[in-house]
Amino acid sequence: MNIKFTSTSDILKMHMYIMTRGNKFWVDKFINRLEGVALPFEFDFDGKGKKNLWFELGVRPIQFWEIVYPEPCHELMCHTILDQEMGETQHKQHEKILRMIRFGMKLNKIDYTWKPENVIKDFRGIVPLDDLGKIPIIKENIEVVGVGTKKDRYTEHGEML
Question: What is the DSSP letter of 36?
């Protein structure tokens, strides 16, 4: 193998972005197989000599989800799902992409100025909440990016558009 790296930044330079479409069963199989792939590389630790190492592929999904809920629960859902202190995303260069997605889908930008104390006051005792006033969900080790919102639209006859 003639691949040589001299610093850890050299190891992590390539990021390939792909999209998949297909039956979830087969897409899951594809992704699961990628997760187990290890690639060889040679690394020189601070000039102390080269070592042959293995690098396991990092398979990190970027997924787009639609969450549907009653409008009066909007601030509760924002408080539960989003990170008010981080805002839209920790990667500021992604904000341009988020603006394009919002424009293309005719979405409104999410307002990050909800008041957690009002959410707790409005929903405590009605919906199970944790100590922070959020619906108890698991969010460890993931970044949740708020893209935008859109209200349901109906025809004059009450049919959803």
Answer: T
In residues, how long is the chain? 161
Q: Which helix (H) or strand (E) holds 33?
A: helix 24-35
Domain positions in the chain:
4-56, 65-161
Q: What is the DSSP letter of 105?
A: H
Instruction: Give residue 108's Cα distance to chain centre.
Output: 18
Sign of CA dihedral 37, 43, 49, 50: positive
Write the CA distances from 39 to 31, 73, 93, integer angstroms.
16, 47, 29
Unique residue bearing structure tokens 């969450």: 67
Which residues are paired to 124 by β-bridges? 127
Task: Tell me the β-bridge partners of 44.
Answer: 50
Question: What is the C-alpha separation between 77 and 144, in angstroms, rounded?
Answer: 12
Tell me the pLDDT tens digit for each residue of 104-124: 999 999 999 999 999 999 999
Model pTM?
0.71
Burial 53-90 (b: 16+ CB within 10 A, else e): eeeeeeeeeeeeeeeeeeeebbbbbbbbbbeeeeebbe
Alpha helices in 37-113 (DSSP H): 74-81, 95-105
**Contact of 153 with 161, CB cutoff 8 Å:** yes
